Amino acid sequence: MVLPNPQLLQSVLQIARAAGNHLSDFYQRNLTVHTKTDNTPVTEADLFVSRFLIEKLTALTPTIPVLSEESGHIPLARREHWQRYWLIDPLDGTQHFINRSGQFCLLIALIEHHNPVLGIIHAPLSAHTYYAMHGYGAYQQTPDALQRLVPRRLNPERPLKIAVGSPSAQEKVRSILNPNYQYEFQIRGSCGLKGALVAQGGADCYVRLGQTGEWDTAAAQVLLGETGGFIFDTRFRPLSYNQRETLVNPDFVMAADRRLDWHNIFQFD
Predict the structure, then answer these.
(1) What is residue 201's three-state secondary structure?
(2) Closest by Cα among 72, 92, 89 to 191
(3) pLDDT category, 63, cuts 50, 70, 90?
(4) Residue 4: which residues within 8 A CB-CB, separation 6 or more?
(5) pLDDT score of 32 more than 80
(6) What CA–CA distance (Å, rounded) separates 149 from 92?
(7) Whole-structure pTM over 0.85, yes or no?
(8) Distance from C-alpha of 116 to C-alpha of 33, rounded to nearest angstrom
(9) Which residues, 6+ apart, have CB-to-CB distance to 30 below 8 Å?
(10) Pairing between strand 252-255 and 230-233?
């Protein structure tokens, strides 16, 4: 069977929504917060949903390994031979989850030959799901409707809408922007939600100057690829997947329209 395919996508969407129900249940509880070795928080919700997703995805596709943020210690020597694997973040935006801001989601991506080819971003509290598959298109599912996401042509004469994660991030991003353009900033929660915001037209780009993992960007990369956008690092190169010992991304920009002169907008040097 050739993967990915629409049947696989629908099965994984069901798994994502079931995992989202678990996150919603945990969201109502008082959770114990632990600190990982990289000084980021983790809760029992992260760990439970990670195990749930690994179990369900393994049952669905027994020959495809699963790499989760919570199992990201797998060495390159073991995973570099994977031709295809699932890459998941069971709770993207753990700090927002802890703070009860509601700005969190879960992320599932299928990687083939180092490229994301299927991606799902599911926000359980709003019941919004964004998903895409290479050559299949990108979609936004809400409780009321299913909408296909379409490419946009950005007008450089209008203010560029930039999504960032915090007021301090906004100031860092402002320092690398060409002052000859106009900008509007939007502060949003998790990495996945900001990527979805770009794909569905709520922002023109999302700039991240700070640490993220490959699981944070893979699903959004598929959505952007199906809507005329892309992701690039500070040297305007694409992100890599499962090609380095580290799974930490470089700083990057998620952009809605690859035809815009991004080299002129961002002054990284």
Answers:
(1) coil
(2) 92
(3) very high
(4) 110, 112, 117, 118, 133, 134
(5) yes
(6) 22
(7) yes
(8) 31
(9) none
(10) antiparallel
